[in-house]
């Protein structure tokens, strides 16, 4: 064992108490500081429930949640600190002018239970739990969202693994500008978003299980992100990218609805997209979406298996979709499109088997005639919709629907080139 790993400090040595009233933030922060001064190591949280306000992790320190350990967020909002940083994070703002406005400079939005600011070679590991206790902040987003559970800004070589996050008061993990970091074998229940990253290079999210009220994985401005072998259950979207990304791989994920936990704002449990790529969906996010590879995905009981929507200041290069299976798709065709000037160069879809629930309305096809797209409740086709794309290639595609549907299976709008090989359509009984 290296010296770095041999340094193990218990929070009990600094006066932490497992009870229902003590705020242990001072004791835990003193343990972290002592560990960092010795060159780094492990700060251990033993079995018990430890109430705490804001904890600040430091470089070269791993916070270990032992079996039976619970870090529980303090009920008092004054116990939580807002983000203090000189780093310009303004490009990551979203939702300006709405109740969902998100800005790292907002002292309410940036409150967090655990802060990881300007650190490297650090992280949190399990098998214990962090409980955000659904703390409400009436000055926060939507006049109800409280502190994030974990906030990371400018982190490198960070590792978060094996622990559980329950009842986040806002996002379970919110990260800005992280590099060479991993999120492995996490279990996230309730709250709003699970893992939300705005700005990253070389990041992995793998073998996690999430049952979230809002998007399970979200964010954008990702470069070289790998999302694989995850189980995602959401009352919103499984994966939602709201800022353009490049070199993105999503693979071997099981994404299903309805959500086991209600969306905390609306109370709904119906799932939206399994995967939604919508740069500019929550405000201006200019840039290129390119080298997107989505493969070996199983989606069940979602609004749509995949939705890609470009805004006017986005373009897309290549989007490749391979080995996707979807069952009980409740309403929307798979789609890659823009409603304005955004253009996609190439879409490749192969080895796909999608089953939709039909809409039994003989008059539905004619309803779309001369209707502007912003009035469409669904697409004028039931299987796949493509708009403003250079080339679309389909190979080994089976599109099926249950019940009745009177729309065409695939629709092209301003697609320069289309090539189909072994594309089949089927109506199923029942």
In short:
This protein is mainly β and 430 residues long. Helix content is 5%, strand content 52%. Pfam families: Glyco_hydro_28 (PF00295).
Write structural notes for this entry:
5% of the residues lie in helices and 52% in strands. With 430 residues, it is mainly beta. The chain folds into 2 domains: 1-138 and 145-192, Single-stranded right-handed beta-helix, Pectin lyase-like (Pectate Lyase C-like, 3 Solenoid), CATH 2.160.20; 239-430, no CATH class. The longest helix has 13 residues, at 25-37. The N and C termini lie far apart (62 Å).
Set out the fold topology.
Blueprint: H1 3-6, E1 8-10, H2 25-37, E2 41-45, E3 48-52, E4 55-56, E5 61-65, E6 69-73, E7 112-117, E8 120-125, E9 129-131, E10 148-161, E11 164-166, E12 173-184, E13 187-189, E14 195-206, E15 209-212, E16 217-228, E17 231-234, E18 239-243, E19 246-256, E20 273-277, E21 287-300, E22 304-310, E23 314-329, E24 334-338, E25 343-357, H3 364-367, E26 381-402, E27 408-428
Parallel strand pairs: 1-2, 2-5, 3-6, 4-7, 5-8, 6-9, 7-10, 8-10, 9-11, 10-12, 11-13, 12-14, 13-15, 14-16, 15-17, 16-18, 16-19, 17-19, 18-20, 19-21, 20-22, 21-23, 22-24, 23-25, 24-26, 25-26, 26-27
The total of helices stands at 3
Q: Which value, in Å, is the CA radius of gyration? A: 23 Å
Tell the overall outline.
elongated
Q: Which strands sit side by side, in order, in the main sheet?
A: 16-18-20-22-24-26-25-23-21-19
């Amino acid at each position: 064992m290296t010296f770095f790993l041999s340094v193990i400090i218990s929070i009990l040595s600094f006066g932490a108490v497992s009870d229902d009233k003590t705020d242990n933030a001072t004791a835990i922060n003193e343990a972290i500081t002592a560990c960092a001064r010795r060159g780094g190591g492990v700060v251990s949280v033993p079995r018990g429930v430890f109430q705490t306000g804001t904890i600040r992790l430091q470089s070269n320190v791993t916070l270990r949640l032992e079996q039976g350990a619970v870090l529980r967020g303090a009920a008092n909002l004054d116990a939580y600190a807002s983000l203090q940083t000189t780093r310009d994070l303004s490009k990551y703002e979203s939702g300006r002018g709405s109740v969902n406005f998100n800005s790292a400079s907002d002292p309410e939005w940036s409150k967090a239970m655990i802060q990881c600011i300007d650190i490297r070679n650090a992280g949190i590991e399990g098998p214990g739990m962090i409980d955000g206790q659904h703390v409400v902040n009436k000055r926060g987003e939507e006049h109800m969202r409280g502190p994030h559970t974990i906030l990371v800004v400018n982190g490198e070589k960070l590792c978060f693994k094996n622990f559980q996050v329950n009842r986040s008061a806002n996002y379970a993990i919110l990260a800005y500008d992280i590099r060479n970091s991993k999120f492995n074998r996490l279990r996230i229940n309730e709250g709003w978003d699970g893992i939300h990253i705005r700005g990253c290079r070389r990041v992995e999210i793998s073998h996690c299980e999430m049952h979230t009220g809002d998007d399970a994985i979200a964010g954008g401005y990702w470069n070289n992100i790998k999302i694989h072998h995850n189980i995602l259950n959401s009352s919103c979207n499984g994966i939602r990218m709201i800022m353009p990304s490049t070199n993105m791989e999503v693979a071997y994920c099981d994404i299903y609805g309805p959500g086991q936990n209600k969306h905390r704002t609306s109370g709904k449990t119906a799932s939206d997209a399994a995967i939604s790529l919508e740069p500019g969906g929550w405000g201006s996010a200019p840039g290129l979406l390119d080298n997107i590879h989505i493969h070996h995905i199983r989606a069940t009981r979602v609004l749509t298996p995949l939705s890609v929507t470009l805004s006017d200041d986005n373009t897309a290069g290549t989007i490749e979709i391979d080995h996707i299976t979807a069952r009980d798709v409740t309403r929307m065709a798979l789609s890659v499109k823009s409603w304005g000037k955004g253009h996609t160069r190439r879409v490749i879809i192969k080895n796909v088997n999608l089953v939709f629930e039909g809409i039994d309305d003989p008059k539905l096809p004619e309803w779309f005639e001369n209707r502007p797209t912003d009035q469409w409740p669904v697409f004028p086709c039931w299987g796949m919709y493509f708009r403003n794309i250079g080339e679309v290639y389909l190979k080994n595609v089976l599109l099926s629907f249950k019940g009745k549907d009177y729309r065409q299976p695939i629709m092209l709008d301003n697609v320069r080139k289309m090539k189909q090989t072994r594309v089949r359509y089927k109506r199923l009984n029942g």
